[in-house]
Specification:
The protein has 267 residues and is an alpha+beta fold. The strands form 2 sheets. It has a 5-stranded mixed sheet with strand order 1-7-2-5-8. It has a 3-stranded antiparallel sheet with strand order 4-3-6, with no helix packed on it.
Length: 267
């Protein structure tokens, strides 16, 4: 059944993006019936549903009682999900898998409540919970969907995850994997949903935060282990992103006062 409605540019939605414009999967949580559009085709989603579709799918309903929540996930996010759900995945090969433009999963109100809360609090937890829920209702389809969404990216993701803390620039990473820089940057954007330089900096800094809060390592040693070329580069990057120096962050994480009189982020 299709509703041929005019496309509305101001449809209210709550969007959480865990990938870029080339996201592998789009999850739409809705408490109201709505209409979706892809390449001129219309798809009706009933109330209290989770719709699993592609990133190009758009909401076009005229009137919505409740705002749908849209959460996009990159192929890299799905790659990271795979080991966590592998015991639930159908192991038999399905060489004739046909991906639906929209796969609708009906859910009770309390499940929709959990979907909505997790999408705001922790998109990664939402992906884990929602995908297990989907697998419990249609194991064959969602097993094949996950496999097809990450196929072709395993080697690339393994290389990035193994080497992201090497003291290499984006150009050096591209050279090591044997890709022209432009092609590497495009593939990285498609898989991870953000530019390589930004993603590398975020991952290195997050790892540095863990080391600062959980180990007695010197700041310089942490900088070098996390792929920064020197102490100054690491400190400047850390301060720009977290509004404090690595030393201050370490004191704050341990509930101590540093030499500047900062305790837990308070002057």
């Amino acid at each position: 059944m299709f509703f041929f409605l005019p496309i509305k540019e101001d449809i209210p939605v709550i969007a959480v993006f865990m990938g870029g414009k080339m996201s592998a999967l789009r999850f739409i949580i809705t408490r109201s019936s709505l209409t979706l559009s892809l390449h001129g085709e219309r798809y009706v989603v009933p109330a209290n549903s989770l719709a699993v579709t592609c990133a190009n799918m758009q909401v076009v309903s005229d009137v919505l009682q409740c705002k749908p929540i849209i959460v996009d996930f990159s192929a890299a996010a799905l790659q990271q999900l795979y080991p966590d759900v592998i015991e639930l995945i159908e192991t038999e090969r399905n060489n004739t898998f046909s991906r639906n433009n929209v796969k609708v999963i009906k859910a009770e109100n309390d499940v929709i409540d959990v979907f909505s809360s997790l999408s705001n609090l922790s998109p990664d937890s939402f992906l884990y919970f929602s995908y297990i829920y989907c697998l419990s209702l249609d194991r064959n389809y969602f097993s094949a969907l996950l496999k097809s969404s990450i196929s072709g990216n395993k080697a690339f993701c393994h290389f990035i995850e193994t080497n992201f803390m090497q003291p290499w620039s984006v150009a050096q990473l591209a050279e090591e994997i044997g890709l022209p820089l432009r092609k590497f940057n495009q593939q990285f954007q498609d898989v991870y949903g953000k530019p390589a330089k930004r993603w590398l900096l975020e991952r290195r800094l997050e790892h540095a935060k863990r080391l600062l809060s959980s180990t007695p390592m010197r700041v310089l040693d942490i900088a070098l282990e996390c792929g920064f070329s020197n102490h100054a580069h690491f400190t400047d990057s850390f301060r720009r992103n977290f509004m404090c120096s690595p030393k201050q962050f370490r004191y704050q994480s341990h509930g101590k006062v540093d030499n500047d009189g900062i305790l837990n982020g308070e002057e």
